[in-house]
Design brief:
With 363 residues, this protein is α+β, with helices and mostly antiparallel strands. The protein has eight helices and 20 strands. The protein has helices at 9-14, 34-43, 67-70, 118-128, 153-161, 202-213, 223-232, 266-275; strands at 4-5, 18-22, 25-30, 45-49, 54-59, 83-89, 95-105, 108-113, 135-138, 143-149, 173-178, 181-186, 195-201, 218-220, 279-286, 297-300, 303-314, 319-327, 336-341, 344-351. Strands 11-12-13-10-4-14 form a six-stranded mixed beta sheet, with helices on both faces. A six-stranded antiparallel beta barrel has the order 15-18-17-16-19-20. A five-stranded antiparallel beta sheet has the order 6-7-8-5-9, with helices on one face. The longest helix is centred in the middle third of the chain and has 12 residues, at 202-213.
């Protein structure tokens, strides 16, 4: 099947971007280079094309529609114009997808989902939502998404959308007048820096992209830098670090699961809590600039104890970093491990999450 292209594909070509397939889409991986784009985001402001992500609109009462049961976060207690990160789980508590939930009105919601899981997510919602007084709509093909990330992102947006941006708290959103239409801007992101996500109609996204790049504080960044940025702060990537074979318990993400309410997969989580976990997602750091990649095997005391799910060179720390699932008894901070792939051997040790702790996320 041919990879899809976002409305900004030709803009990426004009900027000399290197593009490659990702989640069924042909996406920009880098422009000037991953390390340069990574450092620019950490110190200035970068804009990312995230139009491949999916968006669903749901008009429904959270309880009577079963929407609250489908998601692990408590929707009933969410204030208007706030967002929450959470999961859709299967009956075994495996992660179908990790999503951001937006409460637009009392009974109106937006779910932002991953590109590769969009069709399966929509079907899961359709199957489990009550049939009466519920409207489920996939608006992914008409709604574009840009991420503006970095310590200077607020200054950039104030110049475009006005001083109302200054009032946005972390994980809150509002409507702002930009280019003649009201668009959603949320104070969210995937980099560990102060950042915002902008949702605009497809026919306006090229104009918005170019408007942002007119500011000398802003440069484009690709998915390569987005991956190193998110890994430095220990954010999981769906399809690598989490999937339907892993649970929020094993991934260390139970703070995004409300055990006080009922939801699909809760019984399985309670069972695992009683039995204890066989594996946990851990962070590790190498002793040099050498970095592991996905599927490296992890050894301790000459025994295989896990596998690398994400790994990269860290531009901020100057060494290799990664995440992987380790046998529970070998997860203590400071544990020395060896990362192996054929003839490649890298020494590392288990460290605390996140690796990078100097971000402007809550500035």
């Amino acid at each position: 099947m041919e990879n899809k292209k976002t409305p900004l594909f030709e803009q990426h070509n004009k900027l000399g971007a290197k593009c490659a397939p990702f989640g069924g889409w042909l996406m920009p991986i880098q422009y000037e280079g991953i390390i340069n784009e990574h450092q620019w985001t950490r110190n200035n402001c970068a804009v990312f094309d995230i139009c491949h992500m999916g968006e669903f609109l749901i008009q429904a009462d959270a309880l009577s529609s079963n929407l609250d049961k489908i998601l692990t976060q408590n929707l009933v207690g969410m204030p208007l114009k706030t967002c929450r990160y959470g999961f859709m789980l299967n009956d075994n508590a495996g992660i179908i997808d990790d999503v951001i939930i937006y409460r637009i009105e009392q009974n109106k919601w937006m779910l932002v989902v991953n590109a590769a899981t969009q069709a399966a997510d929509f079907e899961h919602l359709r199957k489990n939502l009550a049939r009466n007084n519920v409207k489920l709509e996939n608006v992914s093909n008409s709604l574009a998404k840009l991420d503006l990330q970095g310590p200077l992102s607020r200054d950039v947006l104030v110049a475009i959308a006005g001083e109302g941006i200054l009032k946005l708290d972390y994980y809150a959103f509002d409507y702002f007048s930009v280019l003649g239409e009201n668009i959603i801007i949320s104070r969210t992101g995937y980099t560990g820096e102060l950042g915002f996500e902008l949702y605009v109609n497809n026919d306006k996204v090229i104009e918005l992209w170019n408007l942002l790049l007119e500011n000398k504080k802003v440069k484009p960044a690709g998915l390569g830098a987005r991956d190193t940025l998110r890994l430095e702060v220990g954010y999981p990537l769906y399809g690598q670090d989490i999937n339907q074979k892993t649970t929020p318990l094993e991934a260390g993400l139970t703070s995004f699961v409300d055990m006080k309410k009922d939801f699909i997969g809760k019984t399985a989580i309670e069972k695992k809590q009683k039995q204890g976990l066989e594996k946990k997602l851990c962070c590790f750091q190498t002793e040099s600039r050498r970095a592991p990649r996905h599927d490296y095997e992890i050894f301790a005391n000459n025994q295989k104890i896990g596998i690398v799910t994400s790994g990269s060179y860290s531009p901020s720390l100057g060494c290799g970093i990664g995440m992987g699932y380790l046998e529970t008894q070998i997860t203590a901070i400071g544990t020395e491990i060896i990362l192996l792939l054929e003839n490649i051997k890298i020494n590392a040790k288990v460290v605390k999450r996140p690796f990078y702790q100097k971000g402007s996320l809550r500035a």
